[in-house]
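Justification of resources, computational component.

The compute hours requested in this renewal are based largely on the per-chain cost of generating structure records like the one below. Each record pairs the submitted sequence with a full structure-token output. That output is archived, and it is also reused by downstream analysis tasks.
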Amino acid sequence: MKTIYGLIGALMCCGLSLASASANNDAVLADLTSNTVDVHSTAATVNIPRTRQFVLKDGDRDYQVMIKLPKKYQQNSSHQYPVIYMTDSMYSLQVVSGATRFPMNSNMMQQAILVAIGYQRPSKGSASRIRDYTPSHDASWKLPTGEAKRHVAFISQIVMPFVEKNYRVDSQQNTFVGNSLGGLMGAYILLEQPKLFNYYVLGSPSLWFDNKQLLQQFAQRFSQTPAISAKVFIGIGELEKPPYTDNGHQMVADAQALFQRLQSHPSAQSGDLALKLLVIPEADHSMAFPTTAIHGLTWLFKRNLS
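The structure output for this chain reads:
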């Protein structure tokens, strides 16, 4: 009550009554309203420039795929471009498109075609990604798991041929970008089909899935796989571990373990398999991907301007 009375007193000392103050406020609001446009009647949908949306079929499953072309794609009619394939399209395309816009448009980074692969329509995104991005069946999950093999086949046999048929691509610079479960799937591709992509950007890979089965497979098999010529970037937030998380996952240690497994391959010793690990300061699982994406893609595609 003292605060209210003090406010009234202050207004009166300034020669204002509450009624006049209210009238002044109404006048200001009326003036603002007269200069305000009804956004609901005039607003246009905001789109990412040079981006088209397609639906590609995997048997009885439909997937949304979004493709963004480089700024000078139409001008350079003979130039072939690297292709950056991404999982989790509704999240990753906005992040990668925004982060690479300036460096690509200012010639600091190679221009590339962005291909963002979404979830099965019309299923819930969480159900589709958990099923499609996980390499093994884990009965402890309520949702289906373990169909990464099928989803990778969809990417390699449907998505990539579609892109290569319709656009001018440099097939020697095919790049995979995946985060969280998408990063887990990228690690799975590295183990099972490492030559499918030339470059890999793995963000916060969920290697804890199914009691770290994939890490165990790397320990048992990876060093004996054939020679690999690739570049692999792994990004992880330094806070993706206890006590900063409540799930008990040691994601930093897991990412470091994957990096060490990759280092053990003879191709890493010869330099044909180039590796980089970035532990991102002060980043948790929800924050790390944008930094992983721009650092990883800069490492892969930065132009040498010297």
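The first strand starts at residue 51 and ends at 58. The chain has two domains: 2-41, 50-301.
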